[in-house]
Amino acid sequence: MRAATWWNRPRPARAAQLALGALVLVTAFLAAAFPRGVTAYETRGVRHALGSVAAGQRTVEVTVSRTDLPGDPAASCAAGELTRQDRAIRGLFRDPLRIAPGGSLYGVRTTKPLPAQDSWLPRPDGLAPGLSLYAAAGLGTHTRLTEGRLPHAAAPGKRRLEAAVTVATARTLTLRVGSTLHLDGLTVRISGLLTPRDPDSAYWAADPLMAAAHQDTTPDIPPQRLWRAGLLLAPEDGPALLRTGGEPEKFWRYPVDTRALTAGDAARLRDRLVSLEHGAALARLRDVAGGGALADSAVDGLLDAFARTRAAVAPVVAVAAYGVGTVAAVVLLMTAGLTAARRHAELALLRARGASLAGLAGRLAAETGAVALPAAAAGGGLALLLVPGQRVLPSLLAAAGTGLLATVALPLRAAVAHRRPRPVERADTVGARPSRRRTVAELTVLVLAVGAVLALRGRSTAAGGVDTLASVAPVLTGVIAALVLLRLSPLPLRLAARPAARTTGLTGFLSLARAGRAPATAGLPLLALVVALTTASFGGSVLAGVATAREHAALTAVGAEARLSAGAPLPEELGRAAGRVPGVVDAVPLRIDVQAADDNGSPLYLVIADAEAYARLSRTTGLGAFDARELADPGGDQPLPALVSPRFRTRFGDAPMALQPELGQLVIRPKTVRADTPAQPGGDFVVVDARSVARRHPDTYRDPATGPSVLLLSGRSLDTRALRAAVRAHSPADRPVRLALRSAVRDRFADSPLQQGAVRLYTAAVAAGAGFALLALLLSLLQAAPQRGQLLARLRTMGLPRAQGRRLLILEALPQALLAALGGALTGAATVRLLGPGIDLTALALPGTPGGGAADTVRLHTDPASLLLPSAGVLALALAVALAQAWLSGRRDMSAELRVGDPR
After folding, report:
1. What backbone torsions phi and psi does residue 148 show, to the nearest 5 degrees?
2. Of 26, 32, 33, 35, residue with least CA distance to 372
3. Range of 342's domain?
């Protein structure tokens, strides 16, 4: 009998099973995609960090000086010996430290330049050019012969060598094939002119002297200029360099292959490099290259910078991950609770007929697992297929955890509800009293939340690493807020129900009574909503803070929407053309003169601008707004009033001060102090009125040679294409005009794939959290939809108009939605206020800016739109669901809502 009853019971609703499968699939996909997304943008970030620098900075260089050469130095510098050592050194490189194909170089070189004795060589300040000699392998492979031939090796002991130079070096030093140079007892004849095949490769980029001559200066006072260049010898001429005073050394240079480098390889690659430079690998290297061998590379420094940025970004992203994961878990639990409530009568009947608790839970687990586990597997598989990344195991574990939670949630919920037969009794939100266990649990979560908040406030996320307790602080704060709201929610319902009971209308009192009779288990939807809204508000504030910081940094760098500048006065026709560009609201010309300070401190920037136009620009940009009347000329011989920076006032006080610009002497007196100004944000600046200066120096002010050299343009919808065309059309050939755009500078702050990936992932997490919040609200409303439909049908049989029915459903759904919306907004604001001092957004907003100082650090601040828009969405969805249910109830047959045997 028991078996027949068990197997012949009604099957679970097919629509509910399909909905559960879809929910698990989406949740598992998001859970599995997150770790792969993190590793994907981190991998792009580490490759960008190494790939964005010059090829010469991605090399490992091994050197052995002349004094450390073992045995016979000449035999040690022979080409064959260098080739043998090159093969042995390559064998020391292990993954992930790989050598890029091509670009490697080895040989003998001089580290001290040898002065050329030939008087016909160019000498800017009378100093002889300093030439470095390179007896390097692979010269023919990496060059194209333009003229002459490659150098031939000299006979042993001969002091007459052949060398080749690049075309660029020959052009600078007026060399040609057949030219003879005399250096430190050596005679070098130029045998050929070469052109590098790939000038940007590590072969040439690591040592620029090999590719072209460069002008250098001596450390003397005053400094003197001289030319530096490299001469390329035959590889077999390495022993000949030992007879010079150029302090020769053997060297091997290997470019690091970063094409297959992943974020997980970054730490191991750094360890390999550190070991090669200072550890056990250096000992093995010295066994091969010689006892004095040294290894050096800039790659480990680049990896350290990447690791610092990743460590600063990771905690911020972890906050979103924990928040969305918590909301998704709550939604899965809500789905199980909704299913358990729908099948309560069926499961109670089975328990009454003798079904064991273990058998009941096992059967429900089998039913749910048949849907949830394949859906989780499909979601995880889609994440592995669609989201690039290297982390497979964490993604599989996340998808498996989602499927396991969805499988066991319903059996556990049913086991708790049907542990022993109980009479059906109403547990109202207003009338239910929390148990002692619930009180202890709430206090435990409160202690954890306070500890997490204090942990995050006590340190900066820029310190590196992900603190789990600190990362879940917004979630715990939302949990505490939800528990407090559940404790306090009966009070406003009681207070509102009393005056409503005295009114003659039915709708108000009945809606409040229905809201008060919601089951005490309605706290789970409220928990999901508050946590989701808190996470969404926190995430929105993070994204808004990043955008605001980039906008301000770009504005500070440019001073306006666009900036035209040159080392000389700008052409007048360029200023007129720029002012006519569509979208330009104001064009302010400036004279900026750099003054040397009497106290030998940082230079002073004297800005001469029309006071009224410059004041308008300051108000528009928000950089040091002031009143133009403050700079009015007092007349006579009195000092000109000036707007100065705080540091200027600290250095020189308020006393009048004489400045010496090209226009003539100006005596200024500080009157207004501002931290920033559009012409020179930051620094020590002085701003005076151009009209006042023109009255003091009418002749020199009108001189075109001292005209404005900077033009600042304001206007939100500036046509950048037309502005670039105007600059190209009116820019003198001998005086190039530089154009800086605020939009271009702002975009450069997001160039790093690490920052871009973190912002995209955070945006996706916020969107996913908002979606789960709306789903939680929809589930909570659907849970009570049958009872509301039956109530509306009964009231309609008593003559309730449809308009009042709609009003009743809206007012019944409004208290919980309003409670969640207000609680979420307030909790989000409190979370940002509490955790803001511990969140450093500098690495996320401004790549390359370390922060750490009070003025440079980007802190988290409350964003009103991020707080109000999610809460408004919750209210709008609650009203939309209530209206939709009222409309559907009006179209249904009332007999279908009032079937005999339905629960009353």
Report:
1. 80, -145
2. 26
3. 2-39+307-551+751-897
Tens of pLDDT, residue by residue over 635-675, are 778 889 999 988 888 888 888 888 888 778 888 899 889 98
**Direct distance between the N- and C-terminal alpha carbons of the chain, in angstroms, rounded to an integer:** 30
Identify whether 903 is part of a domain. Answer: no
CA distance 635 to 511: 76
Cα(314)–Cα(311) distance, rounded to whole angstroms?
A: 5
> Cβ atoms within 10 A of the Cβ of 664, count?
14
Tokens 């946590």 belong to 531
- Continuous H helices in 559-592: 572-579
Asked, for residue 45, whether it belongs to a domain, the answer is: no
545 and 569, same domain (yes or no):
no
Q: Does 9 score more than 50 pLDDT?
A: no
Query: Do residues 250 and 281 share a domain?
Result: yes
Query: Of the candidates 745, 761, 787, which is a domain's last residue?
Result: 745
Going by their DSSP bridges, the two strands 685-689 and 604-609 should be labelled as parallel
On whether both 737 and 762 belong to a single domain, the answer is no
- Residue ending a domain, among 231, 263, 297, is 297
In the numeric block, the tokens 């940007």 are attached to 200
Lowest mean pLDDT among 154-163, 818-827, 885-894: 885-894
Task: Output Rg (C-alpha) for the chain, integer angstroms.
Answer: 38
One domain for residues 292 and 335? no
- Report the domain count for the chain: 3
Outline where 560-625 has alpha helix (H): 572-579, 611-621
Whether 602 and 465 map to the same domain: the answer is no
- The tens digit of pLDDT for each residue in 347-395 reads 888 887 777 888 888 888 898 999 999 999 999 999 999 988 777 899 9
pLDDT, tens digit (0-9, with 9 covering 90-100), for 201-253? 889 988 889 999 998 888 776 778 899 999 999 999 999 898 888 899 999 99
Measured CA to CA, the distance from residue 423 to residue 443 in angstroms comes to 31
- Segment of 121-135, 408-422, 456-470, 858-872 carrying the highest mean pLDDT: 121-135
Residues 468 and 575 in one domain: no
Tokens of 863: 């964003």
Tell me: do 569 and 651 sit in the same domain: yes
Q: Which helix (H) or strand (E) holds 857?
A: none
pLDDT band at 432, cuts 50/70/90? low
Q: Using CB atoms within 10 A of its CB, is residue 632 exposed (0-12), middle (13-18) or buried (19+)?
A: middle
- Measure the CA–CA gap between 745 and 737, rounded to whole angstroms: 17
pLDDT average, residue stretch 556-574:
87
One domain, residues 772 and 867: yes
Maximum CA extent, the chain? 121
Q: Domain for residue 50, yes or no? A: no
Q: Is pLDDT at 619 greater than 80 in this prediction?
A: yes
